[in-house]
Hints:
The protein has helices at 34-43, 60-69, 85-95, 115-128, 170-179, 190-196, 216-231; strands spanning 5-10, 28-29, 32-33, 50-55, 75-80, 102-105, 130-136, 141-144, 150-154, 160-169, 202-205. It has 232 residues and is α/β, with parallel strands linked by helices. The strands form 3 sheets. The protein has a 7-stranded mixed sheet, sandwiched between helices. A two-stranded antiparallel sheet has the order 2-3. Strands 8-9 form a two-stranded antiparallel ribbon.
Amino acid sequence: MASDVGVVIPAAGKGQRLGSRTPKAFVPLAGSPLVLHTLRAFQASPAVGWMVVAVRAEDRVRLQALVRAHRLTKVCSIVAGGASRSASVARGIAALPVRAKWVVVHDAARPCLGRRLITSVIAHAKRYGAVACGLPASVTVKAVDARLRVRMTLDREGLSFIQTPQCFRRDWWMEAISRVDHQLDGMPDDVALLEWAGFPVRIIFGDPLNIKVTTKDDLLLAEAILKSRRHS
């Protein structure tokens, strides 16, 4: 396989805020399970060689059936998710082939991922070493305490709302994780570990339509985005 890029998709969330008994990855969206939209996007990308998906242990058989039915040939492994999202990502990276020198991490719950963004994040990572997608802060952001009292108003000029995918050198990540003794739970996102270890991380412009599905309203919006793309 020519590509040296592996993708890790954490999909072990329960989706409690969706109010559904169905695990979040399998919630119906525009006629397909939510996770299938994400998998198809990476399957179609020539820049990607492999995919590893982290799901709840009890959902592995269900995902295996989905992968077979839709001929998702780039899925090389399905691993049981860890106690946290960071732990799930770590298990996914460990399951990638050695030839995967670059790692892309993308939330299963961002099903509106476009092919151009995949290509862009990988190309920029190969230039700079590590990148994350982001959108410039367009609203005022205030830091508050536990009682919701304002502590300070942040300067939005230097702030970005971060998305996935995020892409980075695998050897950088391995070096960084060796320094934290695998204590990952305090890391807010995947490139934060690299930042902590002193590796440079760049932000590239993301996609406003690359939304994360968290609530029922998000599901409705994601469905509208996907249907609009089909029609166009």
